[in-house]
Amino acid sequence: MSDTTRLKSTVYVGGLDQGVTAHTLAEAFVPFGEVVDISLPKPDQPNSKEAHRGFGYVEFDLPQDAKEAIDNMDGSEIYGRTIKVAPAKPQKDANEGLGSKTAIWEQEGYLAKHAVDEEDRQATEEAQAGSTNITSVQGLTQLDVAGPRPE
Length: 151
Description:
Elements: H1 3-8, E1 10-14, H2 22-29, E2 35-39, E3 55-60, H3 63-73, E4 77-78, E5 81-82, E6 84-87, H4 108-114, H5 118-130, H6 136-140
Antiparallel strand pairs: 1-3, 1-6, 2-3, 4-5
């Protein structure tokens, strides 16, 4: 199964109670199709008493099953807590975005999105040089009285 098909077949389940297990999620989502995999990410701190981080992922065999699960399970309750069910998003690269240790302007994604070719840059500079610039001081020279304009 390709990564894009696998991503389309996976749903995010958030707002889970600590009592929820993989078995509980399997029982809740099996009516919508064959469940291939369930993951409940562990807490970042190894000494934590929590079983999981309060969310998980359910992977179905078919993308249609994932869509059915989202449509039917979003806003439902498991163990007295309302859950959020949505399409899973791809995992972010640790070297991309604001959380990385690489400067944002040195990242490939930023450059691809915000790159400007030399022609456009020169046209912009010429347009700015040709425009009439009024400084704030020039705009204030005509004011001799404070307050509203007399009528």
